[in-house]
Amino acid sequence: MNTTIKFYFFISVIVGVSIYIAQKQNIDLPLIVNNYVNDFLIVPICLTISLVLLRFTRNDEDYYLRFYHVLYLALFYAVLFEYVLPQFYERYTSDRVDIMLYFLSAMLFYYLQRKSKAHAN
User: pTM for this one?
Assistant: First the structure.
């Protein structure tokens, strides 16, 4: 797997977990960090884990997620967290910025994956 995707994944996990811990400790974070950074990080984290699992289960180190896979996961997050869950739980609120962040980060992942595929050939 591309070292750029690995690096992005590990930094995303570290940043995301740090924000989560800070929120649980009631540490005041800037609003943009508190409300949006983890929304930007989660889709590429899930896509990277999916890619690793699919490569393992298919026994194919050259397997790459297709555009529709990436788009599907972003759409899944958008519908679940911005439409379905806010109807049932107060903790979740619908936010169009979050939807945009899911899709932007999905496109970033797809770009990084394609870049790694191009360098592999």
Answer: 0.90
- Tens digits of per-residue pLDDT, 25-71? 999 999 999 999 999 999 999 999 999 999 999 999 999 999 999 99
The distance of Cα 21 from the centroid of its chain, to the nearest Å, equals 18
Q: Tell me the two tokens of residue 101.
A: 């962040």
Q: Which two tokens stand for residue 32?
A: 């943009």
Q: Is residue 37 within 8 Å of residue 97, measured between CB atoms? A: no
Q: What is the CA radius of gyration of the chain?
A: 15
Q: What is the DSSP letter of 37?
A: I
Cα 60 from chain centroid (whole Å): 23
> Quick one: 70 exposed, middle or buried, by C-beta within 10 A (0-12, 13-18, 19+)?
buried
